[in-house]
Amino acid sequence: MRSPLSATLRAEGLAVSYPGVPVLQGVDLTLEPGLPPLGLVGPSGVGKTTLIETLTGAIKPDAGTVTWDGRNVHRMSRRDKRRFTGAVRAVSQYSMTVSDPKITAGRVLKIALGEARKSGRTHATSVGELLETVGLADRFERRPMITLSGGERQRVALARALATRPEILLLDEPLTAVDPRARAEMAQHIGALATTLRTSILLASHDLELVERMCPNVLVLAHGSFVAFGPLREVLATSDHPAVRDLAEAITVAHQPFRP
Predict the structure, then answer these.
(1) Prediction pTM value
(2) What is the mean pLDDT of the chain?
(3) Which of 78, 143, 178, 251 is geometrically suited to a Cys-Cys bond with 151, CB 3.0 to 4.6 A?
């Protein structure tokens, strides 16, 4: 039997840079199945997307390691890689770029269910149930992806990620194109589903209202490392770090609605 911590995703001493520009410097992060969603906030361009892509193995770090189930995600066997890609899923605002004009939402989700089988995560969920999970009707199964709006594509991207019933879900601005009226409802639904599946969520977003709604605690990323941790409202009110103060002031200047 696997131990409760065996599927932990862990970054230790993570450093990533682009030519001449350090992005992440000594980042440590642990994501464990069953824990509440964790927010990731910070200024634009600070490296939130880079961190998520490094956690998935898409970017190889200059230093440090990312491990899942005790295995280095950048040095996995083919079998372990299949298991990893089923257990750790990522969704970004660019996840649903359409290259095949004929592919339907149903086909996208059938492929994802096939990935679930290959990674040993077979379950009885149907395409229709996956669509319902993200608030789309059955008729979307037959719709070509190219005909969907940006918000509808993002919903399909979320459904695709959820097809494997992942242990870790990495979300990078996952609802930017979703109608604001539906965003709160979707956030609540995703949070409830994550609790049911014991899926750990890392949510990176500039939408601080969404982050606070979904995440009891947040990490603030600035200058390559984490500079604050705690409930979002408390962090913004008490931290003296310049990057955190800038976030708090930006909210005030923009007069954004900001409610728990």
Answers:
(1) 0.89
(2) 87
(3) 178
